[in-house]
Amino acid sequence: MNLFDVYPLNNIEIQKAAGSTVWDADGQEYLDLYGGHAVISIGHTHPHYVKRLTDQLNKVGFYSNSVVIPLQSELAEKLGKVSGKFEYQLFLCNSGAEANENAFKLASFYNNRKKIIAFKGAFHGRTSLAVSATDNPKIIAPVNETDNVVFLPLNDVSALEEAFIAYGNEISSVIIEGIQGVGGIKEASIEFLQKIRSLCDEYNAVYIADSVQCGYGRTGLFYSHDYAGVDADVYTMAKGMGNGFPIAGISIAPKFEPWYGMLGTTFGGNHLACSAGMAVLEVMEQDNLMQNAADIGEYLITELRKIEGVLEVRGRGLMIGIELPETLAHVKKALLFKHHIFTGEAKPNVIRLLPALNLSKEQADQFLENFKIAIKG
Ligand SMILES: Cc1ncc(COP(=O)(O)O)c(C=O)c1O
After folding, report:
1. Segment 289-299 mean pLDDT
2. Is residue 246 within 8 Å of 94, Cβ to Cβ?
3. Strand 171-177 and strand 206-210: pairing?
4. Per-chain mean pLDDT for the chain
5. Phi-psi bin for 55: left (phi > 0), alpha (psi -120 to 50), beta?
6. Res 356: pLDDT
7. How many whole angstroms separate alpha carbon 40 and alpha carbon 33?
């Protein structure tokens, strides 16, 4: 049997990893500023993480949501504390798309409406409704097509106001990334997020903050939407939550009341997933990783802005986009194959940095030095 060939691959096999360093099958060392797509939050093979997962696996790895799993409540308590949303409720699932899918469903159950407002450049996942709210027609199959999603330009307050005037009481939810990831590190403005909050209040629509990529401490605050100083009704999260173990969740405001069967999953919230989630939050707290993300991120952004040839540097904390001109389109590949540094990308010419939150100043400098050389070419 062959693999279903949907990924364009770099011909590199990673065999060992520690912190922000990975090694390939030939023993070649790489600096990892991609974190497997913003997933590695506390660093590869962190000793506390490995121990917690190993200990749990030796006790019980999985049982279904038909029994009490105290680790789920421990995780909810800790997440409430670290995120500052003490009163919110946690539903656990397995992936970012699933988190968004559940958020849409919850919103629709809540206000009994169907329309969703999403934004140009958005990526919310590949399941049916999540992909329909994703601004990429190529990955929306005919069966996923729906008239329920309306796309508006990002940060256009008047367009948002007009949409609420036009659709008002039909709007179930508004979904927005605090910083668009796949869209090229484009930040939602504070004014815009505040406007979403006030319009959702006025029309009883649900504000969904997609924090799958930009959340979990990456920008220096737990949710990047928090920079606007207003709460969302639902936060969706995944990537950094389990440092590589598949776990996702939605943090749900107190006004939503659950009923048995409203949401559900087989794997979500299993013992191993919760142990991974706990280990991540424990390390984030102990090592003050949100502060480190803010500090090293600010340092990187400041230094990158000084480099000649770079068109624009966008982002916050350790979610950084470096926009390059077409003439420097080769830099990303050069970083990987010549300088042995993993980075992410966004089309057409944006290099995305999504490293572990404990990236050190020395590692940031190592990247800057190599990046300057790669740009000179
Ligand atoms: C903002 C955002 N939302 C949702 C998703 C979907 O997450 P998953 O691939 O875990 O389904 C992604 C994945 O890249 C994302 O960046």
Report:
1. 98
2. yes
3. parallel
4. 98
5. alpha
6. 98
7. 10
Residue 116 to residue 138: CA distance in whole angstroms: 20
Which phi and psi angles does 150 have, rounded to 5°? -115, 125
Share of the chain above pLDDT 90, in %: 99
CA of 186 to the centre of ligand 1 (A): 15
Ligand 1 centroid vs 29 CA: distance in angstroms? 28
pLDDT given at position 210:
99
Could you tell me whether strands 21-24 and 14-18 are parallel, antiparallel, or unpaired per DSSP bridges?
Answer: antiparallel
Decide the pairing of beta strands 29-32 and 206-210.
Answer: unpaired
Decide: residue 237, CB within 10 A, 0-12 exposed, 13-18 middle, 19+ buried: buried
Pocket test for ligand 1, best of 179, 239, 247 (most atoms within 8 A of CB): 239
Percentage of the residues of the chain whose pLDDT score is greater than 70? 100
The answer, yes or no, to whether residue 122 has pLDDT greater than 90, is yes
For ligand 1, the distance from its centroid to the CA atom of residue 245, given in whole angstroms, is: 15
Of 7, 124, 176, 179, best ligand 1 pocket probe by most atoms within 8 Å of the beta carbon: 124
Distance 373 CA to ligand 1 centre (A): 32
Angle made by CA atoms 186, 192, 194, in degrees to the nearest 5: 130
Atom of ligand 1 nearest to the CA of 248: 10
Distance 181 CA to ligand 1 centre (A): 9
Helices (H), the chain: 35-38, 47-59, 70-83, 96-111, 128-132, 157-167, 190-203, 271-286, 289-305, 331-337, 361-376
> Of 168 and 266, which is predicted with more confidence?
266
Nearest CA to ligand 1 atom 16: 213
Ligand 1 atom closest to 177 (CA): 1
**Whether the predicted pLDDT of 377 surpasses 90:** no
Q: What are 10-68's pLDDT values in tens digits?
A: 999 999 999 999 999 999 999 999 999 999 999 999 999 999 999 999 999 999 999 99
Whether the pTM exceeds 0.70: the reply is: yes
Which residue ranges have their beta carbon within 6 Å of ligand 1? 95-97, 100, 123-125, 177, 181-182, 210, 212-213, 238
pLDDT confidence band for 347 (50 / 70 / 90): confident
